[in-house]
Design a protein that fits this description.
heterodimer; A: 73 residues; alpha+beta; 1 helix; 19% helix; B: 160 residues; mainly beta; 10-stranded antiparallel beta sheet; 4% helix; 31% strand
């Protein structure tokens, strides 16, 4: 893991196409500006992790576990 | 093409039913998937990996269960999916099955969006807030209206 110190207004580059700018530091919060191509998904980690866990759990289901259908009304 | 699904045995996948997820699903590998179901009237589908015969997730369209569900895509998601109008988008949500139907949950926070014509797909974060990743699936539709699957149910690949 790389640990670096940045001040508001300073940036880091992830490769050629992704730039992260420290916009504001306020107490224990940091506001970041992320400039990335549209096809690079950017997620808050906890949301990404929660969805990843749901996908992994859903993928454990055996074929017999899911109902075939709901009858039409 | 045919895949040898660990769940369903040999499945024929029509070329026009292949969905490409350039970034995969969140946390899961592979970029090519297909929706498979018993028939095209099914409420539940399996989003089945073509690259990994053991990888498949149960999914459903959310509206039979949540008639007022709303999805808003970020501009980046819409651009990546090449969506020009909402009508082009097919929305599915991942279902987490359980031993008891009452314990099934659905991920309304991270829906799967598929361009109905280009078959390009992406799992997105719904910009409409307030939806969880593990919402009770049968909170509104009574269990008595759901028929359980028989393990030997034939499954055929279909389009959306």
């Amino acid at each position: 893991m790389l640990v670096i110190t940045r001040r508001p207004g300073e940036r880091i580059c992830l490769g050629d196409q992704i730039t992260v700018t420290v916009l504001e530091v306020s107490g224990s919060s940091v506001r970041l500006g992320i400039d990335a191509p549209a096809d690079v998904p950017v997620y808050r980690h906890e949301i990404w992790l929660a969805i990843k866990e749901e996908n992994a759990a859903a993928a454990l289901a055996p074929a017999s576990s899911v109902p075939t259908d709901i009858p039409p009304n | 093409m045919f895949i040898n699904s660990t769940r369903f045995g040999q499945l024929e996948i029509r070329d026009d039913s292949i969905i490409v997820f350039p970034e995969g699903l969140i946390g899961l590998g592979g970029t090519r998937y297909a929706l498979v179901a018993r028939d095209d009237r099914s409420v539940f589908f399996w989003l089945h990996s073509i690259d990994d015969p053991s990888l498949a997730l149960p999914v459903t369209k959310p509206w039979p269960f949540f008639s007022d569900y709303e999805v808003k895509l970020s501009d980046d998601d819409a651009a990546t999916l090449q969506l020009e109008s909402p009508e082009q988008a097919e929305i599915f949500c991942v279902v987490r099955a359980a031993d008891q139907l009452g314990d099934f949950t659905i991920n309304l926070r991270g829906p799967i969006v598929i361009h109905g014509e280009s078959r390009l797909g992406r799992q997105v974060i719904n910009e409409v807030g307030g939806y969880g990743v593990r919402e009770p699936l049968f909170a509104r539709v009574p269990l008595s209206e759901v028929r359980p699957a028989t393990p030997a149910a034939p499954v055929a690949a279909t389009g959306v």
